[in-house]
Specification:
Layout lengths: L7 E6 L10 H8 L13 E7 L8 H9 L5 E4 L14 H10 L3 E4 L4
Parallel strand pairs: 1-2, 1-3, 3-4
The protein binds iron/sulfur cluster.
Iron/sulfur cluster (SF4) binds next to loops.
């Protein structure tokens, strides 16, 4: 992730957690280029922020197909999908594999 390269990024997050979380942690970390966004330059844009659609991540494949049109370079899997102190996602490995199969660069984490 070169700091000077323009990039388009997206975040996928947990549908259950989204009931209680407006996503501020993810956006603040991106805006301040902290944690998993440190390497991005000022010309990187966050162009999509969406939930998995609920267990078992039914929306992921369809939305990744849609992102291809917009030439998104990197998809972050939100920290809430990977933490032990939220209900642990039972489908995380399949969701990651769907991302890899779509040929997208995958970063595990956002603000933690
Ligand atoms: S599949 Fe995982 S990320 Fe999606 S709602 Fe279920 S627990 Fe959350």
């Amino acid at each position: 992730m070169g700091g000077d390269q323009p990039k388009k990024i997206a975040i996928i997050r947990c549908d259950i957690v989204s009931e209680a979380c407006p996503g501020v942690g993810c956006f603040m970390a991106f805006n301040k280029r902290k944690e998993h966004f440190k390497e991005y330059g000022s010309n990187t844009e966050m162009v999509a922020f969406f939930t998995c659609g609920g267990c078992s991540g039914r929306r992921v494949y369809r939305l990744l197909k849609s992102l291809e049109k917009f030439k998104v370079d990197v998809v972050h899997i939100s920290s809430c999908m990977q933490m032990e102190n939220y209900p642990k996602c039972p489908h995380i490995e399949e969701i990651k594999q769907t991302l890899r199969n779509a040929g997208m660069e995958l970063v595990e984490g956002t603000h933690h």
